[in-house]
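User: We ran a pulldown and think these components assemble together. Before we commit to crystallization trials, I'd like a predicted model of the whole complex to look at. Sequences follow.
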Amino acid sequence: MINMLEATKILVARLSDDDLVVGGLGNPKFNLFQAKDRPRNLYLWNAMGMASSVGLGLAMARPENRVVVLQGDGSLLMNLGSLATEAWRAPRNLIHICWDNRMYELTGKQPTASAGTADLARIAEGAGFEKVARAETLPAFEASLERALAEDGPWFIHALVDDQRAAREYPPKSPTFIKHRFMSDLGAEI
Amino acid sequence: MAWPETIIRVLKSYRIEFINYLPDAMGERLLKLAREDSDFDLLPLAREEEGVGTVCGQMLGGRRGVLLMPTSGLGNSLNAIASLAIPYKIPLPMIIGFRGGLGEFNGSQVMMGQAMPDIFRAMRIPYFILKREDEVETVTEGFLRLTFSNEGPAALLISTQLAGWKE
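Assistant: Here's a predicted model for the assembly, 357 residues in total across the polymer chains.
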């Protein structure tokens, strides 16, 4: 089984300063912050299900930047339609990683549908993702990541992770601080 | 110039590139023009809430999008508006075909349409209703100007007085 924090550390160590990372609500965001806080981390507070959609919008707006989405299984299940939208649009610079612990860990470990019958990697394939990787161990995750960083996407990486809760070290809480830091680093103005 | 052409022209003048949409009959009047115009890039959505995320992503990346959707789509979008566009202060221009009002034939549309202005007021979202051809340019321009200065959601509603109702 993969540990989300260890895998997130491996991921951010492989990224360049130019790459954009969307940290979906819950443990994905906390672990992203703990792995490495960087201006181009976009931490989402509460926007349930939105990590994949925000990542798609960023990938469309910034084709010159790689965009990595980190999203838990609960969040993805809330916005499954976004997989169809992403796959159809098919931005080459998008890597969508689903950390699947098969539960709503933060709210009391209630099971998600992926603890039951839902196979999120097969759903991504069915949505039209041509590049789908499955990883149940850290070496397998690293190998999937190598390929995803080397080949055009969009990629969907389904990583089975353990049920460890992220330490309570929180990323910046001010949404406007997160936004301004992110956009300033990009030199983006709207 | 008819209202769809006017709205499209004003969107271009505000450097809107991405039209994130769920279609309805009113929206199609705009989509038809946008498809034939290389200045626009259309993103079809499966659910309107996704469009809140994609527009916010586009804006954070420094490029401008709009969310085009029917009235029922507002109901599908509310938590994303409340937890993303509003607290992060991201401009979110929404163009909405107003259903559930004057001339509505489908009773299932009425609740959402009648509640929509109150929802906007409760969430402090500025909204403007297009009713007459001669005000389309001014109202559309003012709507976009406000959306970007306020850095948040705002809505432009296309009424049945302007666009006609569905038979």
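Chain B touches chain A at residues 18, 20, 41, 43-47, 49-65, 79-80, 83-84, 87-91, 148 (CB under 8 Å). That may be worth checking against your pulldown data before setting up trials.

User: Thanks, that helps.
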